[in-house]
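Hello,

Our lab assistant flagged a job as stuck in the queue for most of the afternoon. It eventually completed. Since we weren't sure the result was trustworthy after the delay, we are filing this so someone can double-check. Below is the sequence as submitted and the structure that was eventually returned. Let us know if re-running is recommended.
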Amino acid sequence: MSITMYSTSVPIITRMLGNLLTWLDKAEAHAQARKFDASVYLAARLAPDMLAFTKQIQIACDAAKFGVARLAGIEAPRFEDDESSLSELRVRIRKTLDFVQSVPPERIDGTENKDVVVPRREGSMTLAGETYLKQFVLPNFFFHVTTTYALLRHNGVELGKADYLGAFTAAPAGG
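-- returned structure --
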């Protein structure tokens, strides 16, 4: 099996969003076991000038949905950024998963050289599809997913490397 734009994006993003759902379950169980309100996590930060926990998940979801949508040349769903509970964050993650998984491989494969325009505050930038995926989408996505993981660990949730990587399934030989 060859590496494709689809195989380098959707399955990886899907896996990590699924892992993120598991971490939220563990965070809620941690709060219940220690008898505190799980909403405490929502404002968690590692430093005073960083974005809070909720925003980390929102941006991870945005990186996933906009990354896939721009490569596929389709409109990404809009979310309001108004989540105020772990349950609402789970809904956002699931909606992101549903969207990302709805995009067929043929919409993404072959976009290596496609111009992708990324709107930014300081003006849009245009990148080739492969550069966009490898140097913008995936690093941005993983930054916010990893920050979410670190915030939960910092707040006592028992997560380890196996939780970050998630369960592995057997791959066919040679692929």
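-- support follow-up --
The delay was a queue issue, not a problem with the job. The result is valid. The mean pLDDT is 95. Residues 8 and 134 are 9 Å apart (CA to CA).
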